[in-house]
């Protein structure tokens, strides 16, 4: 077998920061036995006003499975206390799909034969204009992870352009050093999303075969470097279904919790993606993470981190999303296209393939109507810049 880079050792260009949060997460991961929690532990956790780490573990444990209805009632009440009836809307904009990494579960991986594309400034502006017509005020800009094809300067320029059309702009790109995050902050980026995929270092090594993404600690500490670079918000996720989902959900929640404790002003968000089929590999699926398990994760997050936004993407179907926004989710995407340059219509020009298949293709009008039907209030943005 070919020698591969040591996934726990930083590359020379990668900034090293304190490991205290990573060490704590990995320690909790190793020391947690979810089978030791009882129904009493779960009921105690549900009944509490403020929940500790052990309560969070109980809510993720197998013992919580019979109590999803009780969790739903508690979760719904917490959501309404902290967010009222608001459900925030955004859409992702993929501006390139080049990637130098080999993640075995992703359609953008460097060895997957797909149509690659990258939008130039004019094409980005066209996409921004098309999306802005929907009335959305929040945009998440994404690329594959290729620092050579999509350097930070290119992404920064795209964000500056986006800010002319949108009130809130986030990025979901390759992890950066804190000075590069500071540059993006100057380009008026509001928040940074980085999916750790799995917090199991052994599994991580097996599925991230090539590229900078292979370096586990550099990815895990990305949110902290983003906050050091001045970002207002950071978002976290494990890709559920890659490894044991309870452990990955525990680590994701802990990661957000510990970083919030260290940086109290940070705005924290969590996403709950499950594996999806990709181009050239329709067999990829989220294995043992069914909809009940996914709901359990959403509600455990809500009860442990009441202040955090929870985002649910169009990887999930409309019925599930309509249910989840009542119970714990506070932010949803709409009018989604995961292809490159498709917001003007699929048949316009030379476009790039998408990262994965989506399940909910509702546009912004339909999504707003569904939110209202659920007795909730669609919100485009509630940020005011002074
Ligand atoms: S998951 Fe991200 S880094 Fe990995 S292949 Fe896909 S786009 Fe590239």
Automatic annotation (TrEMBL):
Gene that this polypeptide is encoded by: thiH
Species assigned in the record: Campylobacter iguaniorum
Record key words, sorted: 4Fe-4S, Iron, Iron-sulfur, Lyase, Metal-binding, S-adenosyl-L-methionine
Swiss-Prot/TrEMBL cofactor(s): [4Fe-4S] cluster
Occurrences of domain Biotin and thiamin synthesis-associated (ranges): 271-378
Pfam family of the protein (one): BATS
Name of this chain's protein: ThiGH complex, tyrosine lyase subunit ThiH
GO MF annotation: an example: 2-iminoacetate synthase activity
EC number(s) from the headed UniProt entry: 4.1.99.19
InterPro entries: Aldolase_TIM (IPR013785), BATS_dom (IPR010722), rSAM (IPR007197), rSAM_sf (IPR058240), ThiH (IPR012726), ThiH/NoCL/HydG-like (IPR034428)
């Amino acid at each position: 077998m070919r020698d591969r880079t040591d996934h726990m050792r930083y590359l020379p260009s990668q900034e090293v920061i304190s490991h205290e949060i990573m060490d704590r997460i990995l320690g909790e991961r190793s020391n947690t036995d979810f089978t030791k929690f009882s129904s009493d532990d779960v009921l105690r956790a549900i009944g509490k006003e403020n929940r500790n780490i052990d309560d969070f573990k109980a809510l993720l444990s197998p013992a919580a499975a019979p109590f999803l209805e009780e969790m739903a009632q508690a979760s719904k009440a917490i959501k309404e206390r902290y967010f009222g009836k608001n459900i925030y809307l955004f859409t992702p904009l993929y501006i390139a799909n080049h990637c130098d990494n080999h993640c075995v579960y992703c359609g953008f991986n460097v060895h997957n034969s797909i149509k690659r594309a990258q939008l130039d400034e004019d094409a980005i502006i066209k996409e921004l204009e098309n999306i802005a017509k929907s009335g959305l005020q929040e945009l998440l800009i994404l690329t594959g992870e290729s620092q050579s094809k999509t350097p930070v300067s290119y992404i920064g320029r795209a964000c500056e352009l986006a800010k002319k059309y949108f009130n809130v702009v986030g990025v979901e790109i390759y992890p950066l050093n804190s000075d590069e995050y500071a540059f993006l902050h100057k380009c008026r980026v509001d928040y940074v999303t980085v999916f750790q995929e799995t917090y199991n270092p052994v599994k991580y090594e097996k599925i991230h075969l090539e590229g900078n993404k292979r370096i586990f600690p550099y990815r895990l500490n990305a949110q902290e470097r983003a906050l050091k670079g001045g970002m207002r918000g950071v978002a976290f996720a494990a890709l559920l279904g890659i490894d044991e989902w309870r452990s990955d959900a525990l680590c994701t929640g802990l990661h957000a919790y510990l970083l919030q404790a260290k940086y109290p002003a940070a705005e924290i968000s969590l996403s709950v993606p499950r594996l999806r089929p990709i181009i050239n590999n329709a067999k990829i699926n989220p294995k043992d993470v069914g909809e009940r398990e996914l709901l359990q994760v959403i509600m455990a997050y809500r009860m442990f981190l009441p202040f955090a936004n929870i985002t649910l993407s169009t990887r999930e179907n409309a019925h599930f999303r309509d249910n989840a926004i009542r119970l714990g989710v506070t932010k949803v995407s709409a009018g989604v296209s995961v292809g490159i340059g498709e917001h003007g219509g699929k048949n316009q020009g030379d476009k790039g393939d998408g990262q994965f298949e989506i399940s909910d293709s509702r546009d912004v009008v339909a999504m707003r109507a569904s939110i209202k039907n659920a007795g909730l209030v669609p919100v485009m943005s509630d940020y005011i810049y002074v």
